[in-house]
Amino acid sequence: MNVEYGPLRPADAARCAELESQLFDGDDPWPERAFLAELAAKHNHYVGARVDDKLVGYAGIARLGRFKPYEYEVHTIGVDPAYQGHGIGRQLLHRLFDYADGGAIFLEVRTDNAAAIGLYESEGFEKMGVRKRYYRVSGADAYTMKRERR
Ligand SMILES: CC(C)(COP(=O)(O)OP(=O)(O)OC[C@H]1O[C@@H](n2cnc3c(N)ncnc32)[C@H](O)[C@@H]1OP(=O)(O)O)[C@@H](O)C(=O)NCCC(=O)NCCS
User: Fold this and answer.
1) For the chain, which domains are there?
2) Is the distance from the beta carbon of residue 144 to the nearest atom of ligand 1 less than 6 Å?
3) pTM of this prediction?
4) Pairing assessment for the beta strands 104-110 and 71-79 based on DSSP bridges
């Protein structure tokens, strides 16, 4: 499968919202306007994965703070269910790491999301603690995870 990675564009926002509603059903999926706002914000970096020009994955990260050493927060990552398990999520994450340039990276993940936790742990993230009822709609808990500066 030939997967191409590149910047996420405003024209992708509607497709991202469609994927979000499949991937995060019941957990406040981001609408199109949320993607448009994040794509327009400074210090955010969003990437997409495409197969035959169809967007099949997306991921975004924000740079935090005004001064070095910066820290980073993964906003979101998702892969079309029909394309999961082929390494696309890992490749998207690596592109976020490139933007973070060795800085510490944080994220939140549902405590029952074994696939995402497996991916993050295999990439050097460690659990730091639990945020109770972090997901307001479902009431699910989240782990906060951190990948140390390197
Ligand atoms: C998490 C997600 C992005 C992973 O994308 P993917 O393209 O399927 O992942 P990859 O094929 O790159 O797999 C990378 C690693 O993730 C882990 N993983 C993936 N699917 C898994 C599963 N079903 N069970 C356990 N671990 C899994 C494994 O560690 C895997 O590494 P390996 O293949 O070397 O064993 C994808 O499952 C997804 O979109 N999930 C729904 C949205 C979501 O939960 N996003 C994260 C929010 S915090």
Assistant:
1) 4-147 (3.40.630.30)
2) no
3) 0.97
4) parallel
